[in-house]
């Protein structure tokens, strides 16, 4: 489903922020992505989200080589990917309902169906009462849940989340991690970037570890053992 | 999500300070364009009036000669002209009428009548008739010494040349105004793109086509241009009416009040629509070009 072969990435003429990334994610897998600040996690997520192209190597998503995709085909591929940004990137002038409904509107889903789906999802993430609230009036945790709801409303095949539980209390963070796992159970491939080793310990999913722009893979136990050794 | 009236649902372009002054600039551009356009059509209309007034009329001038019987010469010339094929009317102008024509330039007619004035004969050509003016002038000069046929053509040619030059200048102003408008719109759209880059990125990542984003920009800027063009057009029409009133008060035969034919009014009324279309095409071109540089 997702394949990186010797992928490198740089911004403009700058140095490579990712080097020789080799990676294969099976459909329906669940991975944590971790590593120190500046190791290239956000850059790797940008490649996965089709926000940037690799500067070298082969990257294929859903069986298609990204560099060969035509510009008009990109939106359809992006609709298969849900992205939760670390800084939420909600549209402040839209209500919670409108923010979450945005991917459906863009995809041309019928209004009544869209309202029903969004209302159900907002209830599920505990934002039912805030359906007409605008982001500036929401807490950090609530904004994060709106961002997550927007990412999953389209039932994406791939869900990418950058520190999705960073602004939440532990209980809500756990609830959302369970949501990600439920989406994973119905076939969504999930990649969660996190600094929080407690989630890795709790859910025991495979770990991709970025260090010095290079990617290493391990299972949770091996990673945690190395993490504890410092 | 994009409203009919161009309000941008996601991008909120209407909150941009950068585009707030665009209607004012568009208004000024439309004011200039409308005046130039009105000039184009008014001059075209004036040239047509001059041509039609002059082309069917000739004047024969009998030179003043001391002690000669001018009235007899006038009679001979009149009779001679009436024999010409294609001539409709031949009317010798009484000396009082000639003096009246010179009154605006020389003063009192009773004094003018005592001056050595040439005698004039007004000749009207039948509509659709082809008269060989060169041959007619020669035959007349042979038959009546001192008689000269004036076709007004050299004078008209000079006036038309002047009018055409003014028309070219007006057209050049129109082109210049269009170019400046396009440049202003390009800058406004580019600024809007930079200011909303983050939201554009979000829209892209959740699957928006380039056309979806471009539509928000083009609808909004087209709306601004249309609204901005209305006061500019209104003020230009008021200025034109004021100018027509002042020109009418001159009471000069040649420079009458500028008149705009129906095509001119239609062209003026189309200006807001044209500027909105020009803005739409320009903004779409700029936004799609910029989006292509993003992934």
Question: Helices, strands, pairings?
Answer:
The complex is a heterodimer of chains A (230) and B (295).
Chain A: E1 2-10, E2 16-25, E3 30-34, H1 41-48, E4 56-61, E5 64-65, H2 74-78, E6 81-84, H3 96-107, H4 111-124, H5 140-152, E7 158-162, H6 170-185, E8 189-193, H7 197-203, E9 207-211, E10 214-218, H8 220-229
Parallel strand pairs in A: 3-8, 3-9, 6-7, 7-8
Antiparallel strand pairs in A: 1-2, 1-4, 4-5, 9-10
Chain B: H1 22-55, E1 57-62, H2 70-82, E2 87-92, H3 95-106, H4 109-112, E3 119-125, H5 133-143, E4 147-150, H6 153-195, H7 197-205, H8 210-249, H9 262-293
Antiparallel strand pairs in B: 1-3, 1-4, 2-3
How big is the Rg of chain A?
18 Å
Low-confidence stretches of chain A: none
Low-confidence stretches of chain B: 1-7
Shape of chain A: globular
Q: What structural category do the secondary elements of chain A indicate?
A: alpha/beta
Shape of chain B: elongated
Helix content of chain A: 25-40%
CATH fold group of the largest domain in chain A: Rossmann fold
3D architecture notes:
The complex is a heterodimer of chains A (230) and B (295). With 230 residues, chain A is of the alpha/beta class. Chain A is built from 8 helices and 10 strands. Chain A folds into 2 domains: 152 residues, P-loop containing nucleotide triphosphate hydrolases (Rossmann fold), CATH 3.40.50; 66 residues, no CATH class. In chain A, 37% of the residues lie in helices and 24% in strands. The longest helix of chain A has 16 residues. The model of chain A has no long low-confidence stretch (mean pLDDT 89). Chain B is of the alpha+beta class and 295 residues long. In chain B, 67% of the residues lie in helices and 8% in strands. Chain B has a 4-stranded antiparallel sheet with strand order 2-3-1-4. The longest helix of chain B has 43 residues. The N terminus of chain B is likely disordered. At the A-B interface, helix 2 and helix 3 of A face helix 7 of B.
């Amino acid at each position: 489903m997702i394949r990186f072969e010797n992928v490198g990435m740089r911004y403009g003429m700058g140095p490579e922020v990712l080097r020789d990334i080799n990676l294969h994610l099976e459909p329906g897998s669940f991975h944590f992505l971790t590593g120190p600040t500046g190791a290239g996690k956000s850059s790797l997520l940008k490649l996965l989200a089709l926000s940037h192209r690799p500067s070298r190597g082969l990257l294929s998503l859903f069986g298609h080589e990204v560099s060969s995709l035509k510009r008009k085909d990109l939106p359809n591929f992006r609709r298969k990917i849900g992205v939760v940004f670390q800084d939420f990137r909600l549209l402040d002038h839209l209500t919670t309902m409108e923010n979450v409904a945005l991917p459906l509107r863009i995809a041309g889903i019928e209004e009544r169906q869209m309202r029903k789906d969004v209302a159900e999802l907002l209830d599920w993430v505990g934002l039912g009462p805030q359906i007409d609230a605008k982001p500036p009036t929401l807490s950090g945790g609530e904004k994060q849940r709106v961002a997550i709801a927007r990412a999953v409303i389209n039932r994406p095949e791939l869900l990418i989340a950058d520190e999705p539980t960073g602004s939440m209390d532990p209980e809500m963070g756990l609830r959302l991690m369970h949501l990600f796992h439920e989406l994973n159970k119905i076939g969504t491939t999930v990649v969660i970037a996190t600094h929080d080793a407690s989630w890795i310990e709790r859910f025991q999913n495979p770990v991709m570890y970025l260090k010095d722009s290079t990617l290493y893979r391990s299972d949770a136990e091996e990673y945690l053992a190395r993490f504890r050794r410092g | 999500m994009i409203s009919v009236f161009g309000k941008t649902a996601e991008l909120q372009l209407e909150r941009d300070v950068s585009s707030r002054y665009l209607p004012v600039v568009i208004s000024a551009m439309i004011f200039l364009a409308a005046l130039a356009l009105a000039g184009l059509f008014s001059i075209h209309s004036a040239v047509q009036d001059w041509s039609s007034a002059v082309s069917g009329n000739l004047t024969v001038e009998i030179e003043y000669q001391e002690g000669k019987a001018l009235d007899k010469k006038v009679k001979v010339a009149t009779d001679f002209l009436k024999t010409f094929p294609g001539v409709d009317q031949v009317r010798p102008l009484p000396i009082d009428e000639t003096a009246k024509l010179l009154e605006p330039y020389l003063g009192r007619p009773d004094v003018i009548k005592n001056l050595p004035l040439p005698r004039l004969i007004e000749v009207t050509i039948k509509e659709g008739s082809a008269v060989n003016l060169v041959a007619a002038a020669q035959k007349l000069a042979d038959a009546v010494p001192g008689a000269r046929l004036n076709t007004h053509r050299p004078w008209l040619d000079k006036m038309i040349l002047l009018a055409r030059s003014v028309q070219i200048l007006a057209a050049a102003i129109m082109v210049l105004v269009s170019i400046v408008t396009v440049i202003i719109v390009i800058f406004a759209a580019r600024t809007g793109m930079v200011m909303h880059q983050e939201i554009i990125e979000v829209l892209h990542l959740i699957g928006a086509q380039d056309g979806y984003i471009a539509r928000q920009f083009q609808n909004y800027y087209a709306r601004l241009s249309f609204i901005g063009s209305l006061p500019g057009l209104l003020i230009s029409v008021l200025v034109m009416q004021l100018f027509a009133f002042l020109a009418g008060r001159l009471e000069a035969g040649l420079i009458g009040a500028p008149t705009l034919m129906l095509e001119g009014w239609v062209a003026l009324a189309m200006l807001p629509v044209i500027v909105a279309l020009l803005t739409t095409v320009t903004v779409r071109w700029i936004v799609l070009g910029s989006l292509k540089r993003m992934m």
